[in-house]
Fold these 3 entries.
Entry 1:
Amino acid sequence: MDRTRRGLALLLLLAGCGEAAPPAELRIVGGDAARGRAVITEHGCGSCHVIPGITGAVAWVGPPLMEWARRGYVGGSQSNTPENLVAFLRNPQALSPGSAMPALGLTEAEARDAATYLYTIGQAPAVPAGMPLAEGEAGTRPEPRMRPRAEAGPAQ
Ligand code: HEC
């Protein structure tokens, strides 16, 4: 492979990291990850959550939405299916009574787009740097810095 083609392959690989196509069971009809990214930014989800790939989404009020496509549950008790996630994003208390997450007035289309984006997180077969690797999960990929390293301090 010449240098240009190698560069192109690397670029495609990097571009694919954040938004790999979800497996069939996580696909959402009409959902668009790029629009979802905009919905997430506009609705300030990042003021409460760490969300990989969203600029400024570095808050710890709610749980970090790392590796979302791999997570089993949404809102603590419901299976993490597209249907439940979309419903949760539209009205968290309806799916998860007592949830501290506010309903942010997302339309059905906005919730579908946001959910589509969330399911692109965690599709890559690698795990964040520093975590133990299982067999077949070799390699690392860049993760957002969740907080300044200076504040991290030593492990207790
Ligand atoms: C005011 C803070 C706040 C905002 C803004 C907010 N959330 Fe949340 N979110 C929470 C809290 C607190 C929880 C945990 C409660 C729960 O899981 O029911 C949560 C839970 C979640 C969960 C489920 C997490 C899990 O592990 O089950 C998802 C997904 C989620 N939020 C996505 C979003 C998205 C997308 C937005 C923007 C549209 C958003 N949140 C905006 C506070 C917030």
Entry 2:
Amino acid sequence: MTLYLNINGEDRAFHGDAMTPLVDVLREGMLLTGAKAVCREGFCGACTVQVDGIPMPSCLLPAGLAVGRAIVSIEGIGEEGELTPLQRALEDHDVVQCGMCFPGMVMTLTPFLAANPNPSRDEIKQAMVGNICRCTGYERIIDAVLSMQAQKETAA
Ligand code: FES
Ligand code: FES
């Protein structure tokens, strides 16, 4: 079966079973390996992509149900070859260690910050509840997000 999926603004053909999890379509079918398949049960958030602007675990979304939706993976955000301000802040705070959680974290926090550009510490914690990081203890991630606000205030 051939399915046409809109991925990062391009229509891409996937030849395979409509029940194939989207994370496998991205990683194996499209060679977009940013989304990580870790738990495959919807718990860890490492496979998060945006579906019509909403962060979702791509391990739980069959390819057939992704047809007609706008899928954005970590490879599709920001300018090509450039880090987004969020990615830069996370890097500056040494959040990227093993790196397994990082793409999913960015895909969750990006729409959250677009909707809520000045979140409190607790709101950031709530936003990340579906993204597990085994390396950082989360505080540096929260500090990185808060540092973006501080930078904006300094620039204003
Ligand atoms: S691999 Fe999808 S949520 Fe963990
Ligand atoms: S940096 Fe290793 S799981 Fe988050």
Entry 3:
Amino acid sequence: MSHAVFPDPAVWQILFNRQVENLKTKACPEFFAGLERLGFEAGEVPVLDHLSQRLYQLNGWQIQRVPGIVDAGDFLAMLADRIFPSTYFLRSMAQLDYLEEPDMFHDLFGHLPLLADPAFSEFYKKLGALGVAVHGNTEALERIERFYWYTVEFGLVAAPAGGVQIYGSGLLSSFGESRQIYGGAVEIRPFDLVEILELPFDKSQMQPVYYVVPDFEFLFGQLEKLASAGLALRPVLS
Ligand SMILES: [Fe+2]
């Protein structure tokens, strides 16, 4: 896939304005707090160095520019070091709603607001550390990837007034998929650790099932449970 050399500010502006408006009734409050903390604006394509400095001042995390998808083991090792890899290409105007791979709107708008949250950034780091701890164990790594997928990328959290709110970055950065959650045609299940660890996912299409946690304390507890189960995940959990 070839990418334009410079992100198109008009594309950023459209994506940003459209998604902030769309997420007002959908995203968890931590997302909006993070958006503000980081100083994201519609009229300005973020500069990775500036954003990285701001994040570093907030909680010691840094952003490292990468050309595309990073191998799972390397990705988790970066998280363990409080480094978040981000692309620096932006979809074109013709690709507003369809992407073959994550771009900077996904990486920055989708991931960084929650990463600016103190508790959530620790969650990212612990997930990374867990990946480092199982280095070389393909099966264990795959389970950590699934955990990451059904939480960090596509997770939902119970809304205080009923219903669900989005905290997963894949949903936060997708206009179509975030709306689909509220369309009544998708399956939303209570978070089940054993189930998600065994459930393969397909990156090439919208997800057929989403998992909702009652709150973030519960989510962080699930990671502790996964970590304490070590390499013998299934026998310990079932
Ligand atoms: Fe992502």
